[in-house]
Design a protein that fits this description.
44% of the residues lie in helices and 14% in strands. It has 391 residues and is an alpha/beta fold. The radius of gyration is 20 Å and the shape is globular. The longest helix has 16 residues. It folds into two domains: 164 residues, nicotinate phosphoribosyltransferase (Alpha-Beta Barrel), CATH 3.20.140; 200 residues, nicotinate phosphoribosyltransferase (Alpha-Beta Barrel), CATH 3.20.140.
Length: 391
Amino acid sequence: MIIKSLLDTDLYKFTMMQVVLHHFPAAQVEYRYKCRNTGVDLRPYLDEIRAEIHDLCQLRFSEAELAYLGGLRFIKSDFIDFLGLFHLPEKCITVSMGEEPGEIAISVKGSWLHTILFEIPVLAIVNEVYFRRTCQTPNWEEGRLRLQNKMKLVLEANDLSEFRVAEYGTRRRFSQTWHEEVVTTMKAQMGGHFAGTSNVWLAMRHGVLPLGTMAHEYLQACQALGPRLRDSQVYAFEVWAKEYRGDLGIALSDVYGMSAFLRDFDMYFCKLFDGARHDSGDPFEWGERMIAHYESNRVDPRAKTLIFSDALTFPLAIELTRRFAGRCKTAFGIGTNLTNDLGYEPLQVVMKMIRCNGQPVAKVSDAPEKTMCDDKAYLTYLRQVFELPPA
């Protein structure tokens, strides 16, 4: 059994889920899976993936897990009561042959509150099933050597005392066992440079800090849930602030591209939120624009945290640290490059929300390949509303 706990997911799933419980309990959504790799055939493993998802849907939160979640300062007691009754509804997920050669189709439809936890474990299942069938004798020593070389870049440098990195790689990990080894190794060897993990189960098991705030799906859903489309980003940030009252104050910046984000992220949000997270586009340009934006709104960027999490490697994170040293706080979330770097090509798998309450929703980031929407007319309209260039 690949997924042994419902906590084996990213923290931001729970922080968003709590907002859904309190503000959008009736929302209905649809998610769709996509593998961006070419030439990968997952169809031979379809039954195995289905069996693992069936086992996932039998899981419940234990009392110890609920107590751990309840001990996080931003988690509320009524949410814990709800999780005590929760399980993933198997009737809401379908796994079938895809239309393209080698492709499988995974779709999730149902209550947002009851389906939000599918994404991360399902992607982890697809990854682990694929790699345990195609790499039956993994080169663990190669993986350990690569991990050691990454950590040495930080530990042997004299100018990286403020460098902080977190592990963000649950959804695309090689396996759960390797994921756990990465986290425990970083905790043991990196000291204060290791900020924590996005994975709640590993955070609980190994006494490290769980990290995360919001994901793209939250801002996407607000396209259908807010008062009007143009105000959906502002609405999402306002509802978040209402729920967390200044806690979990990192805003995601790339659902509509950087320019649209800066138009909405006014002086109020600059002061209210602790910082922002980069997840597409040129990270150096993004950082410079964020710093200039803070300064133009009379906010000292040195008091704000810029988090970088887009396809990061250690050399790139180190370069970013040096670029912005003394100008703002920086932190880094590294995913696939930590949890699936053993010498094999990782799967570029995603599962994105494509509808909310029957309406199309989309992410239009600064990286065109990350756009995912099956309604071209809606995507065109969204670009017009947010003054984005045509695709």
